[in-house]
Write a structure and sequence with these properties.
Chain B: Pfam families: Asp23. The complex is a heterodimer of chains A (177) and B (128). Chain A contains 5 helices and 5 strands, in the order H-H-H-E-E-H-E-E-H-E. Chain A is 51% helix and 24% strand. Chain A is elongated and about 75 Å long. The chains are: A alpha+beta (177), B alpha+beta (128).
Chain lengths: 177, 128
C-alpha cells in the first residue's frame, strides 16, 4: 500500500469512526432529538453535504479498487528472458533471505528491507543478536549467507548486504513475583 | 472476449480465455517445484467461500491471433527459481500452442512466495 492509499484509508477510517461514535451516542440521549432533527434539516438544505458525501464515496472506491488490484504483488525483481518476463516478488525474496539466515547462529531476530538498484539488489538487515558472539564475524556470516543464497537460488545479483545490529538480546530475564 | 483461431467455409472456431487459463494451469501443475498457483486477493476470497476457479493464478491477454500469459505462483523451497521459471514458460507455451494453435508471444512468471512446509516435513521425518 503506497502512502497515498494509506492517506485515503486514514481519512476513511477517521470519518467512519466519527459517524459510528455519533450513532453510538444517539440511544444514550447525550445528543438531544432537537439537535439531531435540526442537523438533518440543515443537511437537507446544504449542498456541501453532497460534495462531502461524494468525496467519501470516491475515497471508498479508491480503497476498494486497490484491494482488488493484482499490481499490489508486482513489486520485486524482474528480468527478461526469451520466453517472457520473470518477476520475483519482494515477499518471496524476503522469505528466501529469512530461510538462508535461519542457520546462522547468534541471530535472535531480524527484519529484511530490499532496495532494488539499476541492475542489482541492495539488502538491508536489521538484526537483534545474542550476546557472546563476535559481531563482525556474525555480520560477515549474515552477508555471505544472504548473498550466496540469493545468487545461487534466485540468480539475483546482490550489490550489497547492509547489516545493522539494532540491539543485543539479554541472556537473562528478570521476573518479579 | 474470445479469440478466433480459424475461419473456413464450415464456420469459426473461437476459444475462450478460460480455456487457455485452464490449459496453462494444467501445464504449470506438471512442473516439479511449483507449490501452488496464487489467485490474488479476489480469488483467495472467492476460494474461502467455496467458489473454485480452475484457472487461478493465470492471467490471459488475448490479441488477434496471439496470446500473452501471466503466471502467478508459489515455489517449493530449494528449487533454482530461474530454471523453474524457464521450465514453466516452456511447458505453458508448448501446451497452449499445441492444443489451440494460438501463438504464445510471452509467458511472464511471477514468483509470489516460497513454500517451506515440505522441507519442514522432511526435517520432522529425519528427527523421528
Amino acid at each position: 500500500m503506497n502512502s497515498l492509499n494509506k492517506f485515503f484509508l486514514f481519512f476513511y477510517l477517521i470519518i467512519t469512526s466519527i459517524l459510528v461514535f455519533v450513532v453510538g451516542l444517539m440511544p444514550l440521549n447525550i445528543l438531544s432529538n432537537d439537535f439531531i432533527v435540526s442537523f438533518v434539516k440543515e443537511a437537507n438544505k446544504n449542498f456541501y453535504v453532497t460534495i462531502f458525501a461524494f468525496i467519501v464515496l470516491v475515497i471508498n472506491l479508491i480503497v476498494l479498487l486497490n484491494l482488488f488490484k493484482r499490481e499490489n504483488f508486482k513489486l520485486g525483481v524482474s528480468r527478461y528472458t526469451s520466453e517472457g518476463e520473470l518477476i520475483i516478488s519482494n515477499e518471496a525474496i524476503k522469505a528466501l533471505i529469512s530461510k538462508s539466515l535461519s542457520d546462522v547462529k547468534g541471530l535472535k531476530d531480524f527484519k529484511v528491507f530490499l532496495k532494488p538498484n539499476k541492475d542489482k539488489l541492495s539488502v538491508m538487515i536489521k538484526a537483534i543478536v545474542f550476546p557472546d558472539h563476535n559481531i563482525p564475524n556474525l555480520v560477515l556470516q549474515v552477508q555471505t549467507a544472504t548473498k550466496t543464497y540469493l545468487e545461487s537460488v534466485a540468480e539475483i545479483p546482490v550489490a550489497e548486504v547492509k547489516v545493522i545490529v539494532d540491539e543485543i538480546a539479554s541472556n537473562t530475564k528478570l521476573r518479579m513475583e | 472476449m474470445e479469440t478466433e483461431i480459424n475461419v473456413n467455409e464450415m464456420g469459426q472456431v473461437k476459444i475462450a480465455p478460460e480455456v487457455i487459463s485452464l490449459i496453462a494451469s494444467m501445464a504449470v501443475s506438471e512442473v516439479q517445484g511449483v507449490s501452488d498457483l496464487t489467485a490474488g486477493f479476489t480469488g483467495d476470497m472467492l476460494e474461502k467461500v467455496g467458489v473454485k476457479s480452475p484457472g487461478k493464478g493465470i492471467k490471459v491477454q488475448l490479441g488477434e491471433n496471439e496470446v500473452l500469459i501471466d503466471v502467478y505462483l508459489i515455489v517449493e523451497y530449494g528449487v533454482v527459481i530461474p530454471e523453474l521459471a524457464k521450465e514453466v514458460q516452456r511447458k505453458v507455451k508448448l501446451s497452449v500452442e499445441t492444443m489451440t494453435g494460438i501463438n504464445v508471444t510471452q509467458v511472464n512468471v511471477h514468483i509470489q512466495g516460497v513454500n517451506f512446509q515440505k522441507e519442514v516435513k522432511d526435517d520432522d521425518k529425519l528427527k523421528k
